[in-house]
Amino acid sequence: MKQSAEKMTYSDYLTWPEGERWELISGVAYNMSPAPSPMHQHVLGELFAQLHALSANSRCSVYLVPFDVRFPEKNEKETDISTVVQPDISIVCDASKIDRKGCKGAPDMVIEILSPATAKKDRREKFRLYQRHQVKSYWIVSPLDEIIEVFTLNQDGKYGEADIYTADDRVPVSVFPGAEIDLAKVFSVNREEEEE
């Protein structure tokens, strides 16, 4: 993951080549190459499939990367927005935040799947970003460790200590009350590789 030192805005972001994936966090540009691993893709696909099925009877919509989430600051014009990210999965329950460019404002839930190139940013910059913009639930998924950390905003608007789930657990999904994700299916690719 490459980083640019020059401060950028959404108007710059829109001029970059379509074949490249970039994110902006407070004006700092991050190149999201290289492409995700097959394990990352499997975990992403299984999480998306289960969440998409759960969303069928709700007002929430589930979006898969690449999907731009813009986080404007107070009175910031569209072209001057300095934070645009592409979470692996975004769940948005307020349809007014969705436009043809993606989501403007905080999703209700975000999932980031760790890779060696992005782990530090997902745990630091994105953690602070999602907390500051009041993303209600933030999941950090570690495919290699077969762990999901679930951070939930508390009454003070801060993320509390993470709830930790492992491969044999079912994870409750706060935006879909009573619903759960089956982690055995999410991490099944690891078990398939062990059997070979």
TrEMBL record:
Residues 11-183 form the Putative restriction endonuclease domain. Pfam families: Uma2. It comes from the Bacteria. This is Putative restriction endonuclease domain-containing protein. It comes from Candidatus Moduliflexus flocculans.
